[in-house]
């Protein structure tokens, strides 16, 4: 892999002792290795760091590995720190409770080689829900390469963080908003969207384990709605006013129905 195609993998973790080794192993099992892997320990209080360190000592690879420890600041800030420390031209994100298929980076490399102007790459993923059912989410079905990207992402966030690879030149100009407790990825994709040259790989190259995501309490759900509304207002220029009103109303209705069910 030459400098043009160089890839840094960024994997933040916070109390992920049950999954961090699985995530790390999926990086080590790639048919084409990355140039660099940066793990960011976001003040884990469990055995996450210990388990990761044990795995790395037992499994040596010919690429650079960094472990950065920070105070608990959230995944957005953790990713920002790693982006700024990275030495590659491309950044691939992996959440500690997700993992990749072995041919993930190989497919990314092929896209970079074939597309001179691409600066953002995404792909489909397998999802395991709370019922332990595994489905192909087929996120690519929501992307129309002939339509305006900002409007498409505004209407529906079809970009999953662990399935995204982005040019460092693009992402380092914006970074994640650490002041948003949630919706940080959605906000960043919208910030990048007007300059985004997106290629979508129609293959599931990631396993998104939704069964392990933190359950949403009423309090968390309220905070998430607040952050979502902040993002929707911030980028309302990407849609017409009637469509903006419709999208906001839809999210408010979903929140009310969910709240009443509890």
UniProtKB/TrEMBL annotation:
Domain Glycosyltransferase 2-like intervals: 8-139
Membrane-spanning residues: 238-260
Keyword Metal-binding: no
InterPro entries for the chain: Glyco_trans_2-like, Glycosyltransf_2, Nucleotide-diphossugar_trans
UniProt cross-references to CDD domains, sorted A to Z: Glyco_tranf_GTA_type
Origin: domain of life: Bacteria
Swiss-Prot/TrEMBL keywords: Membrane, Transmembrane, Transmembrane helix
Organism: Prochlorococcus marinus CUG1433
Organism ancestry: Bacteria, Bacillati, Cyanobacteriota, Cyanophyceae, Synechococcales
Membrane is among the record's keywords: yes
Official protein name in the record: Glycosyltransferase
